[in-house]
C-alpha cells in the first residue's frame, strides 16, 4: 500500500514537473500557417482560422489588401474571451479608430458601451458599415515550412465586428474576411507583434490547395535567393469603402513600369502607372479580383498588342467577362502555362484562361475609364506563384510560376497540414 502511494506520488510530481517546465520554456513558433482553398462558384480564395472560447472554426474570404480581420458578430457569436475595445485604449489607437460609441443596446458581441469602432467592409460587393472593435483569441497551426507544428493560441487579436448583411456576395459558409493588409492591425502585423515575435513577413501561395504562411519559412526546393524582388509602394489615400480621414491605403501597390507581350511593349499613358496625390492610378495586387483589371486605354492597347504579337491565332466570339478570346486549337500547351503567350507586367503572369472546350481568353478584363487604380493584378495571375511580402524591408518577392520548377502550391502545403 505504501509502495502504491509512493508510486502515485512519484507520477503526480513527474506530471507536475513536466507541465511546469513546459510553461517555462513556452513554445516559440517560427511561422504559422493557414490553409487556402478556392471557391469554385465565386472564385474567391478562402481560409480558415479558429477563434473564441470555446474555439470555433471560421471560414473567411482572404483579402490581401484588407486592413484587418472582420467577422459577423450578429449571429451565433458566443465567446467567454471576447473583449470590446474601450474608447481611448491601445487597441483603438493602433487600429487608428477615431470614433467612440458611448452606449449600445442590447449589449452583446458587437454592441457594448464605451467602445471604439472601425469600418468592416466587403471588398467583393463593395459595401461597408461601422462595427465595434474587439479582441479575442485565435488559434493557428505552426510550421517550419516542411512539417506541421503544434497549434498555437494567440490571445487578444484585434478584429472588427461585421454584420450579417456584409456577408452578401461572399462564398457560402463564409463568416467574414481575413485582411492581410499593410497596417498595424492586419493579421500579419498582429501575428508578428504577438508574444512569440514572428519575422515581419508573410507568404501566400494561391491555388485550390494553397496557404498563407506568417513569419519566416523556408520552403523545400525554393531558394529564397531565386525570388525576384520588387519594392512595395504606399498609396497615401485609403482605397477602402469607408475610412477615417487621412488613413493611408492598406493595399499592396507595386511599380509596374511597362507591360510586355512576348517582348512587344504595350504603348500606354505612363501617368496612369503612378499614384497621384488623390490616390488615383498605379498598380495593386488583389486577391478579391479573380482576374487582372486594366483601365480602358491600357486594356485596349494590351489586346491590340496581343493580337499583333499572335496574329496567327484566330479569334472566337468573346465570352464575358473577357473581351478577347481565341481558338484554343491554335494555342500551344506548354508545361508552364495553359498557353504559350508570355506576358510580363514586371511580374510574369498567367495569361490565358480556358473557357469552354474550344476557346481560351486573355485572362484580363476591361476596368472602364477613370478607375481608382489603373492596374489591379488579380488572383488568377498569382495562382501557383509564391509571393513573399517582406514588411520590414518593404518589398515583395515572387517566385514566377512554380510550375516551371516542377512544383505547385499543393506541393508546398501538402507537408504542413495535418489532415
Ligand atoms: C450603457 O449605457 C446606458 C446609457 O448610458 C446605460 O443605461 C446602461 O446601463 C449602460 N450599460 C452598461 C452595461 O453599462
Ligand atoms: C494620361 O492620363 C492622365 C491621367 O489619367 C490624363 O490626365 C491625361 O490626359 C492622359 N494623357 C493622354 C495623352 O491621354
Ligand atoms: C478552331 O479551329 C479548329 C481547327 O482549325 C476548327 O475545326 C474549329 O471549328 C475552330 N473552332 C472555332 C470555335 O472557331
Ligand atoms: C509535387 O507533387 C506531385 C503530386 O503529388 C508529385 O508528383 C511531385 O513529385 C511533387 N514535386 C516536388 C518537387 O516535390
TrEMBL record:
Its keywords, alphabetically, are: Secreted, Signal
**Subcellular location, record wording:** Secreted, Extracellular space
Which InterPro entries does its entry note? Aspartic_peptidase_A1, PEPTIDASE_A1, Peptidase_aspartic_dom_sf, TAXi_C, TAXi_N, Xylanase_inhibitor_I-like
- What Pfam families does the entry give? TAXi_C (PF14541), TAXi_N (PF14543)
Position of the signal peptide: 1-23
Q: What is its main location?
A: secreted
GO BP term, pick one: proteolysis
Span of domain Peptidase A1: 45-399
Write out the GO MF terms: aspartic-type endopeptidase activity
Entry similarity comment:
Belongs to the peptidase A1 family.
The name of this protein is Peptidase A1 domain-containing protein
Q: Which organism is it from?
A: Citrus clementina
